[in-house]
Design a protein that fits this description.
alpha/beta, single chain, 5 strands, abc type-2 transporter like fold, 68% helix, 9% strand, 2 domains, 14 helices, five-stranded mixed beta sheet
């Protein structure tokens, strides 16, 4: 019995060592996951890109903005003239928060009735929560400091520490109640489209190769490009049906508001589908069997979910990880999905992501078509 068991163990070791790609995948995935969770996962977001509309331009307003920057939570990347420009910068994705300081801010601070408006992009869960909590806490600390400095100058002793001369009004745009599903549904639509198009296309081609029927197709008059199109068309339909199902459940069952144009979203999603199909064809030319293809699909889904901005904000990631995230179409479509569904913005605010996605689709489909044809030859 011991000899039989040892013989089976030897056989399994030999088969594992022969399939070096699967072996490397099994060995590297725990390391990749550990690195990704260690560097990319941040529940508390810092260095949030922020725009400032300082209409007062006095020492009090500058001190308030400096206090926000000194906290490490906010990085002022743009100064704009008005609240409308702050909102526009948030819509365009250039910033995720904005500070609007009204005129005569210093005079109102002295009178004890100053107010500053803080705008937060509510389409990003962790960013909005971190910005809300940080803005409130920093404003309280800064206001307390201003109050104590005022009493020190006057030589008086404060009787009521709650009478702060500055009040920060924090407003969450697009999702004022911070409802989780309003964040999740737009990202789920993008995630499902990518994972299913990759998985379905990969499985369809690899299954033919594994069963030996791919050779039978090659002896027919059908061309490789025709075979590729025939393989991907059913997958396009299945992926779009699943996307529409998730979207319909989110809107009608969970009452997630769809603020933008449905047809704009549909046609951009249709374009986005081809990026997943291209990745699926690339995997199919590399994979030798369905098990290996499934492992690669799982790896792409995990890395894309972490680095594409589905769960965690890309602004909190190191530059190297953001570059890796650019290799996934999910990175470009999530801002499109959230922008149309949650914010209700049009293509004039999303043209950067649309152009990037178009280039990505063209490149990946070109590479995939050539690799697919070479694999058949």
């Amino acid at each position: 019995m011991r000899q039989r068991i040892w013989a089976v163990i030897q056989k399994e070791f030999i088969q594992t060592m022969r399939d070096r790609r699967t072996l490397m995948m099994l060995l590297s995935m725990p390391i990749i996951q550990l690195l990704l969770f260690g560097y990319a996962v941040h529940m508390s977001v810092e260095h949030i890109p922020t725009a400032v509309a300082d209409q007062s331009r006095d020492s009090a307003s500058q001190a308030y903005v400096s206090a926000m920057e000194a906290s490490g939570y906010f990085d002022v990347v743009a100064y704009v003239p008005s609240q409308a420009e702050v909102t526009r910068a948030i819509d365009e994705g250039r910033v995720q928060a904005g500070i609007v300081i009204p005129p005569d801010f210093a005079a109102h601070v002295e009178q004890g009735d100053a107010q500053a408006l803080f705008l937060v992009d509510g389409s990003d869960l962790f960013t909005s929560q971190s910005a809300y909590n940080a803005a409130t806490a920093i404003a309280d600390v800064h206001a307390t400091g201003v109050l104590l400095e005022k009493f020190e100058r006057s030589g008086q002793i404060p009787q009521d520490q709650s009478l702060l001369p500055l009040d920060a009004l924090v407003r969450i745009l697009y999702n004022p109640n911070l409802t989780d599903l309003w964040f999740i549904i737009p990202g789920m639509c993008a995630m499902i489209l990518q994972t299913q198009t990759i998985a379905l296309t990969t499985a369809a081609v690899v299954r033919e190769r594994e069963m030996g029927t791919i050779e039978q197709l090659l002896v027919t008059p059908i061309l490789p490009i025709e075979l590729m199109i025939g393989k991907i068309v059913p997958n396009i339909i299945i992926a779009l049906i699943n996307m529409l199902t998730i979207l319909a459940l989110g809107v009608f069952t969970f009452h997630v508001p769809f603020q933008g144009s449905f047809w704009l979203f549909f046609w951009l999603a249709f374009m986005y589908v081809f990026s997943g199909l291209g990745l699926g064809l690339l995997i199919s030319t590399i994979s030798q069997n369905q098990q290996q293809a499934q492992q690669m699909n799982m790896a792409l889904a995990l890395v894309g979910m972490l680095l594409g901005g589905f769960m965690f904000p890309r602004s909190a990631m190191p530059a190297a990880l953001r570059l890796v995230g650019n290799l996934f179409p999910l990175t470009y479509f999530i801002p499109i999905s959230r922008g149309i569904i949650t914010k209700g913005i049009g293509i004039e605010f999303l043209w950067g992501q649309v152009v990037a996605l178009l280039i990505y689709v063209f490149v990946v489909m070109t590479i995939a078509s050539r690799a697919f044809k070479q694999g058949l030859d």
